[in-house]
Amino acid sequence: MTGISRSVRRFRDWDARFEAFYIKRPHPAFTVIDKVTPPFDAASPPPIEPVRVSLDDIDAIRAYVATIEPADLGRPIQLQ
Prior knowledge:
Strand content: 5-15%
Number of strands: 2
Oligomer: single chain
Number of domains: 1
Structural class: mainly alpha
Shape: elongated
């Protein structure tokens, strides 16, 4: 996770990205956030074992990522 976290830390909105990752594709297909996300449709189960976390887990991960030095990728990331 550290390599990905260091790269994501380069974005100005990294914190918002971590906070809402579970609503961005492909995460809704296999992520369960306790007391937040609806259950999976029995007719369309997740393609892999679901990742199950709580909002407290997400807060703890964000706090950890905040301590990681952003990756030096040479020049600023440019969105296309």
